[in-house]
Automatic annotation (TrEMBL):
GO terms for biological process: organic acid phosphorylation. This is Glycerate kinase. One of its GO terms (molecular function) is glycerate kinase activity. It comes from the Bacteria. InterPro entries: Glyc_kinase_flavodox-like_fold, Glycerate_kinase, Glycerate_kinase_RE-like, Glycerate_kinase_sf. Coiled coil: none annotated. It comes from Onishia taeanensis. Keywords: Kinase, Transferase. Transmembrane segments: none annotated. Belongs to the glycerate kinase type-1 family.
Length: 380
């Protein structure tokens, strides 16, 4: 039995690499003769950089940047000198995983650190950028990134705006005259893990703002502020990208990447699968085991388990998902190629306990699956 282990990260618990190791450990304990191949994956969120660096051989760099609250931190990014390609993960600079739950502030968090990483890549000679934008703690439509890259966002008194999406309500002048000129020669691909538009009930603020600390009132404030920003951007640039699928990714960073960097927005899991040669790995697999923190109806918009299942279905390879939680409408994933899905919990537990026990629970579920495979094979 050849088993391809290809999970995403389990938010606040395990990286994709750690999750793959836990799965392999459980499988080999139960089925020592199994052939396992670990291929950590990502759909654009935290951990995607590791998968890309492993696949491409790009060199890891560390740069001091601002986090989502303006504090200094060391963020990783990658650079492949031969192709002049930089790999930047938004979550490294402005990720939710760097904040305590009580620190999450959708009104005021900033993508300034992402702009600092782009500047570092330009300084290294990058001509191509692969930007992954999942896992953000931000809802500023990329305004912080633009500021770091030289843009000036001013209020009616000509003063710079405060950091964060809420301040965009006061935007009067969007001055792009000092935007770094090297950006004009930079080809950008942006990996998104959702297809939401920028605004409205399915937009960045309404759907993702609450997990970043936004109250119902905050969501209304942010949606209006981002709408005002989109209006000024459309008038100045002549194009309106607010309805573009993926524009609402990472609190509107998808919108900014397209409008100001000319980026092509692509499903993150598709882009990562291309980089790691996933189709070739499927050719040698009897089963794929994948997973992440939650499987639900929204997973069909571009999350890792469903992207993997679609690719595996085309090759006739079954897929099993081991997930932290089975959310609303998770059964829709069956039609996309997921043969079976199992939640990790083995009894009642609170979130903190579930996060702490994720490595053990993941190994146990993978081991149980391996035993089931062994029992089934013995009857054939």
């Amino acid at each position: 039995m050849k088993i391809l282990i290809a999970p995403d990260s389990y938010k606040d618990a395990l990286s994709a690499r750690e999750a793959a190791k836990a799965m392999a450990r459980g499988i080999l304990k139960a089925l020592p003769d199994a052939e396992t191949h670990c291929c950590p994956m990502g759909d654009g969120g935290e951990g995607t950089l590791d998968a890309l660096l492993a696949a491409t051989g790009a060199k890891r760099h560390l740069t001091q940047v601002q986090d989502a609250l303006g504090r200094r931190r060391e963020a990783a990014w990658g650079y492949q000198a031969e192709s002049r390609t930089a790999f930047i993960e938004l979550a490294e600079a402005s990720g939710l995983q760097h904040l305590e739950r009580q620190e999450r502030s959708a009104l005021h968090s900033t993508t300034f650190g992402v702009g600092e990483l782009i500047l570092a890549a330009l300084d290294a000679g990058a001509e191509r950028l692969l930007l992954t934008i999942g896992g953000s703690a931000t809802n500023d439509a990329g305004a912080g990134m633009l500021t770091a890259l030289g843009a000036r966002l001013l209020d009616a008194q000509g003063q710079p705006l405060a950091a964060g999406g809420a301040a965009l309500a006061d935007l009067a002048t969007l001055d792009l005259s000092d935007l770094d000129p090297r950006l004009r020669e930079l080809t950008v691909e942006t990996a998104v893990d959702v297809d939401n538009p920028l605004l409205g009930k399915n937009g960045a603020s309404a759907v993702f703002g609450p997990q970043k600390g936004a109250s119902d009132a905050d969501v209304q404030t942010l949606d209006a502020a981002l709408g005002h920003f989109a209006d000024l951007t459309a008038r100045q640039l002549g194009d309106d990208h607010r309805e573009l699928p993926g524009a609402g990714a990472a609190g509107g960073m998808g919108f900014a990447a397209r409008a100001f960097l000319g980026a092509e927005l692509r499903p993150g899991i598709t882009l990562v699968m291309e980089q790691v040669g996933f189709d070739a790995l499927l050719d040698d697999a009897d089963l794929v085991i994948t997973g992440e923190g939650q499987l639900d109806g929204q997973s069909l918009a571009g999350k890792t388990p469903v992207g993997i299942a679609r690719a595996a279905r085309a090759k006739g390879v079954p897929v099993v998902a081991l997930v932290g939680k089975l959310g609303d409408d998770w059964q829709a994933a069956h039609a996309e190629g997921i043969s079976a899905a199992f939640a990790l919990a083995d009894g009642p537990m609170n979130l903190d306990e579930a996060l702490e026990r994720t490595p053990t629970l993941l190994a146990d579920r993978a081991g149980s699956l391996a035993r089931l495979l062994a029992a089934w094979s013995a009857t054939r």
